[in-house]
Fold this sequence. Notes:
five-stranded parallel β-sheet; binds flavin-adenine dinucleotide; alpha/beta; 427 residues
Amino acid sequence: MRLVVVGGVAAGMSAAARARRLDATMEITVFEKGDTVSYGACGLPYFVEGRVKDWNQLVVHTAEYFRHERRIEVRTGAEVRSIEHHRRLVRLAGGEEVRYDKLVIATGARQDRRGIEGAEQPHVYSMNTIPEAIRLREYLRTARAGRATVIGAGYLGMEAIEALRTHGWKVRVVHGGRDFLRRGDGWLTETIEKHLARFGVEVRHGTRIKTVPSEGIVVLATGLTPHVELAQGGGVELGRTGAIRVSDRMETNLAGVYAAGDCAEAMHLVTERPAWIPLGTTANKMGRVAGAAAAGARERFAGIVGTAIVRVCGLGVGVTGLAETEARKEGFDPVAARVEALEKPHYFRGRKVQVELVANRRDGRLVGGAVIGDSGVEGRINVIATALTKKMTVEEFVDLDLAYAPPFSTVWDPLLIAAQNLNKLVH
Ligand SMILES: Cc1cc2nc3c(=O)[nH]c(=O)nc-3n(C[C@H](O)[C@H](O)[C@H](O)COP(=O)(O)OP(=O)(O)OC[C@H]3O[C@@H](n4cnc5c(N)ncnc54)[C@H](O)[C@@H]3O)c2cc1C
């Protein structure tokens, strides 16, 4: 039995490793068109910032490790150009044909630069790949700090702001949308904007950039687009989001062909519809399931609730599920409560944390939330994510037995205060 994996980062290497663990005899080959496999792109902004000294620290395992310790053949600099499923083979850039019994497509996503003229100029940077991050870091290390424009206000835009600020640059962020993190959440956007103003970061919403500015440097943090052309060319069907449609076992429409990670959709447990939210957490889990399926095991990927967290100029921003406007678009009748409270008692130098909880008025079910603060964000957003995963109502959430001692929280956790307020609005 021969497994071929296309793409050697989070989803691809997770798939290969899982298949090997479940089947010691399978012949496994991974094709990666880049030079590096199994690395955490999530660490690249912190490499640009300077906290991570060497990008090699982001590499989890090298190709040699996979070859020698896992008996997985990893070929870097090897681009798969086409899939011929009726003959069960992939064709590489040089024309070489490789046969497969099972195929995992883990081709990820790439930065969407469509409609932006001048993106190839030398003063335009990005942080999406290792070579691009190295180029930006080298520049920031040696140049005198000046003015920078970040294009894009998703989490990559926020991470770019933070990295540039750390190097002393004056930053403005420009994007075509109306809000940060593309959630249509005015409250969240206003809170972040107020914080950024304290750091002299200028924000321009609703400004679609057609040509990159010529002054200062420009960091592209535009949205992503799933890398699906290879799959599509081989007859793999896409879903409503434009990413590859998969089952909960990562099966595509073609027998023996699986897709995982940023190139594929995932079931959203709140909307109960497929969604495309490309994140490393999801890619690793999907990869494992695809590898298990390729090895004949019956594992399943439960789905996502859209949880993400980012830091911008020291402020933690965690989101999960749907914001109020998104919930309305999805057919819910949303109602939201927002509170600002101390995350620890004042005698423990507690800082303010802001919590937003959104529920469906009709049945009281929680559908989303956000937490913003200098600290205490990750634990709280994860509690909300757990509640969404388990489809809890606000009434049930109010009764959660959350931990308390003064060094950690307050006796009424801000989450519970928000839930109590929301409960009054639901009933
Ligand atoms: C700067 C940055 C910061 C991030 N921060 C976070 C974070 O904090 N938290 C989080 O959860 N996620 C984060 N992410 C997202 C996360 O890194 C991705 O979700 C994850 O890497 C997706 O893994 P993947 O294997 O699906 O795709 P990718 O990592 O994109 O890997 C796909 C690979 O496939 C290769 N490939 C494509 N086509 C072919 C072909 N035809 N032949 C051979 N090889 C091919 C590509 O070269 C690529 O290496 C971040 C991403 C970036 C860029």
